[in-house]
Amino acid sequence: MRLGQSLELTNALWDLAPVVISAGEEHDRSSPDDVADASPSGRRLDSDARSRVRDAACRWEETVFSSFDPGKVDPGPVASWTEAQLMADPFGAVATMIDLPSVAGQLMPALADAGSASVDEILYFSAYVQAKARPQRTPLLLRALFVTAVSTVEPLVTRMVHLLLHHTEPQTYAALTDPTLDKKARELCAGPPAKWRKVLERRFGIASITRAVDWDRLDLLWQDRNAMAHRGAVVDARHNSSTGTAIGTILDPSPDEVKSAIDDVGAARYGIVTAVWDHLAPGMGAKLAAEIWVSLWESLRAGRWRQAEGLGRIQETFADGPEMVANAKVNRWLARDQGLGAEAIREEVQAWETAGLPPEYLMARYLLLRQDDRGLRLLRKLVTDGSVTRIDLDAWPLLDRLSSRGMLDEFDR
Predict the structure, then answer these.
(1) Residues near 198 by Cβ (< 8 Å), separated by ≥ 6?
(2) Same domain, yes or no, for 77 and 167?
(3) What is the pTM of this model?
(4) Do 267 and 315 fall within a single domain?
(5) Number of domains in the chain
């Protein structure tokens, strides 16, 4: 597997996010008439037929509302229900308070004149009624995108375990195409992230996997994914016990939260693959860490700080030598600074000992701590003695903040 594939999929999902959001918002802005007219049956009917069916649907709705007598609703049976119980079984709550068969029996005569309607008119009637009561599409699409992104991790872990089993037990699995190998890999990986971590760390002895991936964040994403995919996005007791989110909460991720999840997943995938390759080919992790700056800097400049932070974590895990470790720390802190602000990294940066490192790292420490005057004084010396070149001034994300404020203009002269 090419390492780049671990980011290609999540990069595609990131690019898809604005398309999904735009499509959802356009649908949510559409009138019920427009939505129903765009249905297959709506496109086959002429305007007069659609208008006639819409009028019939409106009359039917009037019948529905007039048939419902709020005075006959008995809230007693559910008065003691908690909000969580109501969210978990809304239909049961309604059925407890209202005699649904009786109400349905009163409504059926209102549909009696549908006998002479064509199939397309009946389908259009249904499409129009549903369009008038349709939920917002954008939240549904965002949940779908969230679930899709998080769901890409388990099959990737399974592929890695597939390779590891074949590598460590060649006498048991003669070929990668052995069906028993695939079955065993799936059995080992069926479950939550904690199980994947245990398999990689304990069964195969990949100690670096603990540091290369933010497992706490991945577990939270997995819990949210399960609630959205299997429980209607409603937090239940199981989710609550793992995350602390109140039972009955409806998970409704914002566009930014979905993009953050995509980037967390991208970094996790990259970390898992890197750790496995380093295990299969010792020393490969250091080589990969040395090249990770390309994707990391691109992520930073795209505002994708969570992915950049995750890549910085991987870079630091496999860095070979003190300068590589220092590069990784600076990259990771730049990402957190971008997403959370300078205060989020201040304590770590203040504790960072740069003695023994080239002076560029002391300059980085000054700038990360917002001691810009000291950082600029040192930068001038480094430019003068050739330690920092014009290319470095343009390329280093560390200097982007100063450049955007015109604080590097003096070096253009």
Answers:
(1) none
(2) no
(3) 0.86
(4) no
(5) 3
> Could you tell me the residue range of the domain that residue 273 belongs to?
1-28+135-280
Map tokens 């974590």 to a residue: 313
Q: Token digits for 255?
A: 């566009």
Residue bearing tokens 């590891």: 164
What tokens appear for 320 in the block?
């070979």
Which of 91, 113, 134 terminates a domain? The answer is 134
Instruction: Quote the CA–CA distance of 137 and 26 in Å, as a whole number.
Output: 9
Instruction: Tell me the two tokens of residue 386.
Output: 């050739």
Q: How far is CA 361 from CA 176, 326, 330, 342, 374, in A?
A: 46, 7, 8, 17, 13
Let me know: does 161 contact 275? Beta carbons within 8 Å.
no
Structure tokens belonging to residue 298 = 């691109």
Buried-exposed string 243-276: b where 16+ CB fall within 10 A, e elsewhere: eebebbbebebeeeebbbbbbbbbbbbbbbbbbb
> Rounded to whole angstroms, how far apart are CA atoms 155 and 161?
10
Which of 134, 151, 180 is the C-terminal boundary of a domain?
134
pLDDT in tens, 330-378: 999 999 999 999 999 999 999 999 999 999 999 999 999 999 999 999 9
